[in-house]
Write a structure and sequence with these properties.
alpha+beta; 3 helices
């Protein structure tokens, strides 16, 4: 069973209920719905536009991902996921999602 995924491209939001989160041309929402209710680790890395420009940023966070039906939003530890990702909007990024392995191993023992 694959427990992680990685995509790269321009991070964009498309208005809707819920807001569609795109990395390149891929809509991440289908993955987020699949991971609803699970603990995840999320890593976002900015990719420099060229080799001369070395500015990069990284966000690593983990927590329980939940889809709030009333608010029509994905929440990561009760905080709106779109707000967590906002600083990376319209930037070229590497987007990594991984199931929290400690939870998986604890359930298997």
């Amino acid at each position: 069973m694959k427990t992680k995924g990685s995509w790269q491209g321009l991070l964009q939001f498309e208005e809707g209920q819920p807001v569609k989160i795109r990395v390149g041309t891929f809509n991440i929402n289908s993955i987020l719905h699949f991971l609803n209710g699970k603990r995840i680790t999320l890593v976002i890395e900015m990719m420099p536009d060229n080799q001369d420009h070395l500015d990069s940023g990284q966000l690593m966070t983990s927590g329980k991902l939940v889809y709030d039906e009333k608010k029509k939003k994905f929440l990561l530890e009760n905080y709106p996921l779109v707000e967590v990702l906002e600083s990376f909007k319209d930037q070229k990024v590497k987007f990594h999602i991984e199931l929290d392995q400690s939870v998986l191993s604890a359930r298997m023992t």
